[in-house]
Design a protein that fits this description.
A: about 130 residues; OB fold (Dihydrolipoamide Acetyltransferase, E2P); five-stranded antiparallel beta sheet; 1 helix; B: about 350 residues; alpha/beta; Peroxisomal Thiolase, Chain A, domain 1; 2 domains; three-stranded mixed beta sheet; 13 helices
């Protein structure tokens, strides 16, 4: 049971909320309160657009505990349009062949259950091919 | 107000209210009805729809609601912190106890200073949320409220409803009429205690039967709600450009429409059950989003939901000049329907958790 950890992270996980540096305007994800670009204090929340592109990816055929249900799945490094790179699952791939540079958009999906069917449901960001 | 003093049955707001933003979401997986018929040895010709939308392994009422709400907010073009209520109607909330609405609210970035609750009234919980939101804004308690109708409906394997029990949802930002894409003229609701369909606590699948589904349930409530709305408003079917009715299958809404004097032309845009199934609390709301994707300023729309148990909400709507500038801010309902991946029954049992793995 990891309820406090999930609760602390839910804002960033549900809506891709990070921070913006008031000194150099760098967009920061995940939130860390200190700007990795200029070292200044950065506590201003910033909601990312959710748009980005695939930097790299791999297909998972063996999953960590709690993620087995969705196997096999693709996990990617997604370079967000605002700068930072995040690690996330891809979803709704269908017949799309994943390629480096492919544009993707953030969606909020069910990530896993905490423990068994009695545990809390963990929601968070995944990315899918841009629609349309 | 004058009409109200005369004893009108219509619900009208003190302050003019409208739909400021709308959005839909439909999962991409489709299970053809012919595939269900094949598994259970039934006739492929007698199936009630072509196919139904099935949620993926990582989708549920909350995730569907979040995407529909984001689309509605994109079209509304308002700061989510202005929203004063989030109400989600569904009969498939992921938690038995713990609101879906707080999770949806947090994901879309409302402030914590809001009303939030989940509603249940079978397939009419979504329109019930809309009427509540209309009441909140119309009374001046707040400027904006978010109403959702979403479901990942449960169909018992081998049951008649397995053909149609589908997943999808719609969200509406209700706000002041001055900035609305759709003006809400009035609403009217009709409910009775009718035992046509239910699911007891801790039961996985709903029960229905003994010929209650049609005449005493769906048709009586739909017809009474629509006819009373038109009688009280002094309108007839010809006054509406579009109509959207609850759609548990392809046949029921067509029969209801015909009896009320509506043509196929008036109902075809909002009649999506043949290609996505019955999205329960999402059914008539998703149909409305498809209409709003193509409606023109001045078009009048009659929307009537139906929920077992039983009751119907009727909404009398008029499209405003703002629709054209806002509708392209989010994907259309047709784009979600076109995003189609056919699955077989075996994959369906895995995605829906019907397949026992332990």
């Amino acid at each position: 049971m990891e309820i406090p950890r999930h609760w602390r992270l839910q804002k960033q996980r549900y809506g891709l909320v990070g921070e913006i540096c008031p000194h150099c305007s760098a967009k920061i994800f995940p939130a860390r309160d200190v700007c990795p670009e200029c070292g200044g204090e950065a506590k201003e929340p910033f909601r990312f657009s959710g748009k980005g592109s695939i930097y790299s990816y791999t297909v998972m055929n063996n999953a960590p505990v709690g993620f087995e249900r969705g196997l096999p799945y693709t996990i990617a490094l997604v370079k967000l349009d605002e700068g930072p790179t995040v690690t996330a699952q891809l979803t709704d791939l269908g017949a799309n062949k994943v390629e480096i540079g492919m544009p993707v958009q953030m969606v909020t999906r069910r990530i896993k259950e905490d423990g068994d069917e009695r545990g809390m449901l963990i929601y968070g960001y995944k990315f899918r091919p841009v629609m349309g | 107000m004058a009409e109200k003093e005369k004893g009108s049955l219509l619900l009208k707001t003190i302050r003019p209210v409208g739909i400021v933003g709308y959005g839909a979401y439909i999962p991409q997986y489709r299970l053809p009805a012919a595939e269900i018929a094949r598994v259970w040895g039934q006739s492929e010709k007698a199936v009630p729809i072509k196919e139904k939308a099935v949620p993926g392994l990582d989708e549920d009422t909350i995730t569907i609601g979040i995407e529909a709400a984001r689309n509605a907010l994109a079209r509304a073009d308002i700061d989510p912190e202005l929203i004063r209520a989030v109400w989600t109607g569904s009969e498939s909330h992921p938690y038995a106890v713990k609101p879906s609405s707080t999770i949806i609210a947090e994901a879309i970035g409302t402030s914590p200073h809001i009303q939030a609750a989940d509603l249940e009234f079978a397939c009419k919980a979504g329109t019930e949320a809309m009427v509540m939101a209309i009441g909140l804004v119309g009374s001046g308690m707040g400027d904006f409220a978010l109403a959702l109708g979403v479901d990942t409906a449960q169909g018992k394997p081998g049951d008649a409803l397995e053909y149609t029990a589908a997943a999808g949802g719609a969200a509406f930002v209700i706000g002041p009429a001055e900035i609305a894409l759709v003006e809400i003229i009035s609403t009217y609701s009709y409910v009775t205690d009718t035992p046509d369909f239910w699911r007891r606590a801790y039961q996985r699948y709903p029960e229905h039967g003994q010929r209650f589904t049609g005449e005493p349930a769906y048709f009586k409530h739909m017809h009474t709600a629509a006819q009373t709305m038109m009688d009280e408003s002094g309108t007839s079917a010809q006054d509406y450009t579009y109509a959207v009715f609850h759609q548990p299958n392809s046949k029921f809404p067509r029969s209801a429409a015909k009896k009320l004097g509506f043509t196929d032309e008036q109902i075809k845009t909002g009649l999506l059950s043949p290609v996505i199934g019955n999205t329960y609390a999402g059914a008539s709301p998703v149909g409305l989003t498809a209409i709003l994707d193509e409606a023109q300023p001045g078009d009048r729309i009659l929307m009537v939901s139906y929920g077992s148990g039983a009751g119907s909400d009727a909404l009398d709507l008029r499209v405003t000049d703002r629709i054209a500038e806002r509708r392209h801010a989010a994907p259309t309902t047709a784009e979600y329907i076109a995003r189609r991946i056919e699955i077989d029954y075996a994959t369906y049992t895995r995605y829906r958790g019907i397949l026992q793995t332990r």
